[in-house]
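wait is this the right file?? whatever heres the structure
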């Protein structure tokens, strides 16, 4: 009887028993959860998870810890290296799988908006022209990777890309390797191994292959000075082509033929060229930019900075609005500014969406192509010194031919002044405007002062557009004051060529687009206002007031 009474006194009460059982259940659930987590991270559920020998926990017998030996550690690492190269776990993201999934994602407006939402402001300011950077391709690739824009034939992984692919895993720091099981195991503080021990041997091989590829890429480049000259030649040739295209569009849609644009309407003469350039910027300046970079970096600069920058003109747009206001058509001038901005913004939107669809179709077509076709496409890349030199010599010959032809025709037209001289003078001085704008573009993303204030503001593009608008207004005033046909043709040629290429709408609208899609519509609006209003106000002081006071025709 006394023994039974003692057992009743020492037996835990109902509350204490429930506490013990809940503690046992919690420990059991934690143990099960840890084992399942390790299984999910260890490539196929084997290897590391099987090396653990978890002893059952009980409050009456004390806690026990997993028994780990050196043999189990070596066996686990060996299994991970072998199984990681053979198959992937259902919960681990491999880098190859992520890249394949991202290649199938079209760069739609919504995706671009998400990508730009986590971009540094200084990088957004460099979405257009960036000028010549001595660091070369590495810096440009870092900027594009941060934007989520591809630097090779597949979309690079950005923070938003990881969210799309992982589907359930929380967002991680940008420097983490989300594709390896080691990263998943970093979250478990009870895991006894470091992340370095968990890296797959295949991942290390890929890193070595990337290093070898970068060394080959450096060997195939031109020397720095020759590389700089090649950029100038590309921009000169494509800049002249942009001037020619702009002139043809003015003639086609102007009063001489279709009469859709004119000097006395909000639909100014340069509107068709600005629309086309903004549309093409969505193609080759945003979506296909990395694909062109795979072929040639010089080609990217030639098309975006050279051709599209010269095809579009901000100074011509601003001067047409000044002409309307000087005549007293203020309503037309305001309407031309607002409508012009809305139209070119919509053009770049349509360009991005159509290019994303076309790129998706192209990738699907490549997947179905035979290996011979794929190998031919890969040979298009300018990855050797010889190919770079051959292309540079070819474009140099084209530039010299165009320059000599333009000079001869401009001299002939000036002897008997005609409007055709404006075109050939513009082709002569156009490349200088492209080079000046490219030089100023290095200020984009640098900010103001030593502390770099306002890094989000593309100062180089803003300065190029403002200077071109002010100089064009000054030349227009001089033309009114001199009032001779020869002087008017020469000054108009300089305006059309040099100042038309110095200013740009395509880069300007691409930067506004990037700010809007990055979740900063206020910055986009501020940048647009800082570009348009000071240019128009200063132009009014330089051009409109003298016209009003001097009563110029």
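ok assuming it is, sequence goes like this
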């Amino acid at each position: 009887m006394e023994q039974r009474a003692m057992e009743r006194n020492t037996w835990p009460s109902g509350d204490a028993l429930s506490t013990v059982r809940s503690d046992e259940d919690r420990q059991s659930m934690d143990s099960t959860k840890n084992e399942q987590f390790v299984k999910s991270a260890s490539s196929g559920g084997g290897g590391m998870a099987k090396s653990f020998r978890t002893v059952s926990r009980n409050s009456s017998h004390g806690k026990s810890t997993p028994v780990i030996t050196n043999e189990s550690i070596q066996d686990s690492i060996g299994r991970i290296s072998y199984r990681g190269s053979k198959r992937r776990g259902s919960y681990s993201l491999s880098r190859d799988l992520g890249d394949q999934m991202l290649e199938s994602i079209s760069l739609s407006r919504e995706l671009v908006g998400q990508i730009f939402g986590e971009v540094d402001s200084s990088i957004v300011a460099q979405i257009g022209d960036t000028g010549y950077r001595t660091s070369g391709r590495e810096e440009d690739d870092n900027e594009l990777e941060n934007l989520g824009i591809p630097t090779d034939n597949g979309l690079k992984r950005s923070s938003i890309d990881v969210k799309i692919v992982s589907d359930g895993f929380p967002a991680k720091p940008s420097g983490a390797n989300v594709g390896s099981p080691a990263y998943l195991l970093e979250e478990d503080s009870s895991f006894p191994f470091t992340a370095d021990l968990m890296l797959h041997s295949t991942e290390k091989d890929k890193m070595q292959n990337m290093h070898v590829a970068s060394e080959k890429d450096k060997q195939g480049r031109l020397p720095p000075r020759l590389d700089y000259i090649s950029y100038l030649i590309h921009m000169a040739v494509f800049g002249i082509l942009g001037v020619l295209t702009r002139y043809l569009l003015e003639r086609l849609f102007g009063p001489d033929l279709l009469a859709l644009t004119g000097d006395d309407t909000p639909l100014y003469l340069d509107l068709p060229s600005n629309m086309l350039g903004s549309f093409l910027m969505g193609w080759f300046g945003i979506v296909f930019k990395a694909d062109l970079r795979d072929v040639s970096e010089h080609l990217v600069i030639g098309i975006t900075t050279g051709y599209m920058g010269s095809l579009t003109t901000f100074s011509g747009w601003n001067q047409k609005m000044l002409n309307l206001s000087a005549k007293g058509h203020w309503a037309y001038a305001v309407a031309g500014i607002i409508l012009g901005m809305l139209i070119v913004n919509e053009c770049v939107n349509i360009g991005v969406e159509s290019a994303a669809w076309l790129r998706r179709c192209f990738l699907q077509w490549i997947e179905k192509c035979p290996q011979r076709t794929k190998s031919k496409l890969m040979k298009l890349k300018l990855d050797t010194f010889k190919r770079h030199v051959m292309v540079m010599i070819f474009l140099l010959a084209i530039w010299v031919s165009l320059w000599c032809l333009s000079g001869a025709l401009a001299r002939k037209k000036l002897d008997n002044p005609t409007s055709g001289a404006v075109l050939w003078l513009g082709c002569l001085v156009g490349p200088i405007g492209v080079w000046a704008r490219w030089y100023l573009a290095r200020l984009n993303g640098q900010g103001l002062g030593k502390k770099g204030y306002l890094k989000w503001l593309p100062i180089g593009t803003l300065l190029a557009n403002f200077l071109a608008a002010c100089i064009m207004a000054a030349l227009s005033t001089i033309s009114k004051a001199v009032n001779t046909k020869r002087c008017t043709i020469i000054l108009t040629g300089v305006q059309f060529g040099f100042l038309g290429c110095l200013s740009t709408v395509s880069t300007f609208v691409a930067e506004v687009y990037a700010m809007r899609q990055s979740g900063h519509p206020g910055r986009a609006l501020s940048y647009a206002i800082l570009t348009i209003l000071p240019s128009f106000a200063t132009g009014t002081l330089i051009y409109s007031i003298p016209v009003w006071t001097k009563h110029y025709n």
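The chain is about 70% helix and 0% strand. so i think its the right one actually
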